[in-house]
Amino acid sequence: MAGPTIPTGPYPPSKEDLDAKLAAFDTVPLFMKSLPSDDTEDTALAALQSLAHEGTPDEVAQNFKEQGNEYFRGKRYREALGFYTQGVDAEPTDVVLQEALLCNRAACNLELQNYGSVLRDCSKALTLNSRSSKAFYRSASALLALDRTEEALDCCDRCLAFDPGNKGVLQLRDRASQAKAAKDRKEKEKADRLRKEQEAKRQMDIAFRERSLISLPKADGSSNPYEPHFDAEDSTHSTLVFPVFFLYPQHATSDVIQEFVEDTPFGAHLAAMFPPQAPAPEWDKNGEYVEGQLVVYAMTHRKRLLKVGKKMTLRDVCKAAKAKEGEKRDGLEVKDGCLTFVVLPKGEVEAKWVEEYKRTRDAEAR
Domain Cns1/TTC4 wheel, which positions (predicted)? Predict the structure, then answer.
């Protein structure tokens, strides 16, 4: 036989004007949300304070439960919570009443989003009655709100095992099932993305080792928006593309080539950047930076200086930077994902810079 739909509160609200009714209750000492302290000078209120706790524990608890129900129907959950707590504190002996107070207090905490308190009260209720549909329902609701979907489903299934037609639990189970499916889908997507990232990193590490490249990430862990990657147009997935800095030390400025395909000659980039007939860059006041009159240098990890011919590619420079057999590891440095080269006018400027570089390098080596 199908069970009833479980309401979220103690029982469905009436059609009365609850706000007006509760406002009237607030002015009646017997129904005040909190009773006066013991040292009050109002003897009438003091007597009512005593009256509120007069009777057997079950009678006192029942009284607080009924007051809590009124406030719950008025959606005044904090006040209702206080009354249910006083009912629990009265320590009734009636197990059914104990269960009702705990489940009702759980309903208040569910509305107030105090999900840990919901789970604690429902757990206590289930120790009193292992077939409490309300306790299972509210536990599952709290667990679902906490995104603990598997546990929410377990609560629903345990309830449906003895109350299979409970519409409220069936609907909640459907929501939990959908939430779990969405959660599982996101976790799978995350795992797939992580696996692809790890595989891409593994392949990039292999490519770096093959080219004797030495990666030097930033100390703060940040990354460059332009990073080395495999050429999407290469079906063999064996050609790397790098962001490359061209430094012009005599002018303290630089250019960045966002995508330098490793099989492209340096001369092709210089010709595109400094064509003979084009106006000189604003910083090149003497017009020295012209294709055919420039030289490129690469610096290795061990401070070796390599002169780069215009027909050389990045792949060629990587090979030239590799340490000879028996020597310490060496190669080009990839700083923050970028390779760096120095571009100079041939002649006096070049000679002066090379001399200064070697002097600084030798001084640091001492």
Answer: 234-357
